[in-house]
Structure of tRNA N6-adenosine threonylcarbamoyltransferase:
Amino acid sequence: MSEKDIFVLGIETSCDETAAAIVKNGREIIANVVASQMESHQRFGGVVPEIASRHHVEQITLVLEETMRRANMDVNELDAIAVTEGPGLVGALLIGVNAAKALAFAHRIPLVGVHHIAGHIYANRLVQEMKFPLLALVVSGGHTELVYMKEHGMFEVIGETRDDAAGEAYDKVARALQLPYPGGPHIDRLAKEGKPIIDLPRAWLEEGSYDFSFSGLKSAVINTLHNAKQRGETLRPEDMAASFQASVVEVLVEKTMQAAAHYGVKQILLAGGVAANEGLRTQLREQMKRLPEVELVIPPLSLCTDNAAMIAAAGTVLLQQGKRASMALNANPSLLL
Ligand code: KG4
Ligand code: ZN
């Protein structure tokens, strides 16, 4: 290769993972460090913003040093620093943004601001080169979106949740079933042992809409559990998990298939923490038979949940497109894609 290799440092602190990574040419992970705070939040049943910020402050320097050490690189060898500027918890985002600005300023390195969801989508590029046009199904604790991409760096949200995110619904239903936080993996595990025999709604919304809604489903689960308890009946948690998962997965997969066919995409990318869901992966793979010419890409679990390699990957593309942030870059908790 005659062109010079591009090395980008990614920084991610939007929620409860303090993460840094170095990615080469937007596709190859050189180092990838994630410090999770999950245990600190578990006893509260969700992420506590104040605690998250404190952990980020404690961890950020250590995580950055560890990343440089693992990559065996010097900061001056970096071509850019990419950081999640939003959306997320403002106090958490600020730690990453300020660390990135300090490094970029001190070493005179270009700075790039990255949207967290763009990062989740670009996690796929660390596995497989993107083929446009493509459709990304982004499902996480804070997001449920169908994103159409005509080319690199161009994101069109064609559908999104009108209430709860898919991961949020998993976590709330898990809480109703008295499972630990985060509940997604626990429901996923229980669902395998149960049968989807409990009748629960599917929110298809208006004809042709690619939007989602999960709050009615969540309420239906809570009401069903409550009514059973009042009648002195016991519902098997495994069956409830299987029935809930069947409803979520059916709607996610069906809308993704319809959108993929309608937009004539070459690839479907799965992104976000809920992409770890076995039921979703299996059902998507199964339904892909309907679109034999479309390629399905699913990143490994470690790249589905929050990490900084995905931020570096997205940041590389933005850098190549000449999109630089100034020293005025700020955390934006409600940044639009
Ligand atoms: O992307 P992520 O790590 O953080 C956000 O940006 O939100 O996603 C976390 C979410 C949580 O709601 C968690 O319960 C869910 O992903 N999750 C799962 C599974 N693993 C994680 N949901 C369903 N099934 C899973 N196996
Ligand atoms: Zn995320």
Strands lie at 7-12, 17-24, 28-36, 80-86, 111-115, 134-139, 144-149, 156-160, 267-271, 295-297. The domain at 131-298 is CATH 3.30.420.40 (Nucleotidyltransferase; domain 5). Residues 241 and 293 are 33 Å apart (CA to CA).
